[in-house]
Amino acid sequence: MREYWTWLASLMGAVAFLQGVVHAVFPAELRAAVARLLGRATRAFSPYCYFDVTETEGMSTNEIYDAVQLYLSSSAAPAAGARLSLSRPHNASSFTFGLAASDRVFDGFRGAAVTWEHVVAPRQTQGFSWRPLPEEKRRFTLRIRRGDREKLLPAYLDHILASAADIRRRSQDRLLYTNARGGAMDARGLPWDPVPFKHPSTFDTLAMDPERKAAIMADLRDFADGSAFYERTGRAWKRGYLLYGPPGTGKSSMIAAMANHLGYDVYDLELTEVGSNAELRKLLMKTTSKSIIVIEDIDCSVDLTNRAAAAAGAPPPKPRASIDGAIDQDASSPAGAARSITLSGLLNFTDGLWSCCGSERIFVFTTNHIEKLDPALLRSGRMDMHIFMSYCTFPALKILLQNYLDLQDSSAAGAGAVMAGLESWIDAAEITPADVSEVLIKNRRNGSKQAMEQLLEVLKARAEKRRRRESGPSPAAGKVAGGDDEEEEEKRALESPKGGGKEQGAMDGQDEETEAKKQL
């Protein structure tokens, strides 16, 4: 054992002597050049190639580094014994995992295996800088086989950037934007005011026939995944949806369900706050991709009525008063047209050249009277899919019962007969999902069966009222209506003292005075 330690000490002394001789004979520049040559020779025979993704590039941050960190935190599988760091970014709704120093993760793309390593090293002492750098230098090292280089690059990096953007969008809270200032800009140069979008509506809770919901969801998914399709066909990556139907049928809930399904932000465009077509284009330019632009009750916002009806002799729209009380000029005049939204401006907004300034946008218009809209606004390319929000049907009613009463099986609750009555009366009642929801909310504490019985009574009353209305008024009702008309005429006659009423009252007063004098 002593001989072993003696041999080891001699060897270490010889190595130290040779190192001193090398340092004394060969200068540092020569040693560095030899080290580089040896490294190149080693890498030339290595089956792998390496790529470094640094955290910073000069004085700016590296976008690829943040994307790789976010992608690996959710997609790649950590190696055995890997140490992960837990974080939650600002304005995010989920946690993200990151690699600790000197840990590795494995990933695959197109059948090729890749390895990522997170390298953290202390930074050398820096001099004076207007922007202090972090104390540590961080980078990701990508190792791939040489034969897979053409297969992975740059497609693999594009895949990482797209996946990171999708993860970032889904992890952050969605926003609801409104144009409260019209087209005016704020201090940041943005015309939109955002608030967190917390609407809980989803397609699972939406009161609609399951087949129609499945068709809408499939159309939305085809649109979101159709980047290559729209590029190949030469079409702008946008789509329009028109929601029409009676009030209370769930048009706003449908918009929220679409936003939650796709993970898009919502821009609620108030046309009455926009002064001209130029402001409308500015608002469109400031919207982001992967968003839904909504114009609710478009038939009530501005004058976009059917031009055919206007040509048939319909009266022109009355002038509207502005905020300060002044009457706006007629839109037909040059001054009024210059500072008002026209149908042409809205058409260019949805389907013109300005609508192509972004990608992956959805336009949603809602209206209660589709017949009032101009046909040019409804054609394909502007409103591609027309969705009729009808009255509550029996499949939609079952979804509402499940949402509000947690009713999975009507026979289990002993309400099979009541359910059969609901099915037979729901179509005749023509009741909206909003009215059904209100009845269920008021009676949900009384139990499922009593709530359903109360809903059945409401459906019967509505159906009977509708039947009477369609059958026409009775003679007695006509007499009553005639009496009401006579009473209204008498009221109008009595309430008009400004004209001849005052003169008649003065003459009556003079006659009374003359009669009194005669009696005296």
From TrEMBL:
Gene3D superfamilies: 6.10.280.40, P-loop containing nucleotide triphosphate hydrolases (3.40.50.300). The lineage of its organism: Eukaryota, Viridiplantae, Streptophyta, Embryophyta, Tracheophyta. This is AAA+ ATPase domain-containing protein. Residues 464-520 are annotated as: Disordered. It comes from Oryza punctata. SUPFAM superfamilies: P-loop containing nucleoside triphosphate hydrolases. The keyword Disulfide bond does not apply. Its cofactor is Mg(2+). Residues 237-393 form the AAA+ ATPase domain. It catalyses: ATP + H2O = ADP + phosphate + H(+). InterPro entries: AAA+_ATPase (IPR003593), AAA_N_dom (IPR025753), At3g28540-like_C (IPR058017), ATPase_AAA_core (IPR003959), Mitochondrial_chaperone_BCS1 (IPR050747), P-loop_NTPase (IPR027417). Keywords: Magnesium. GO terms for molecular function: ATP binding; ATP hydrolysis activity. Belongs to the AAA ATPase family. BCS1 subfamily.
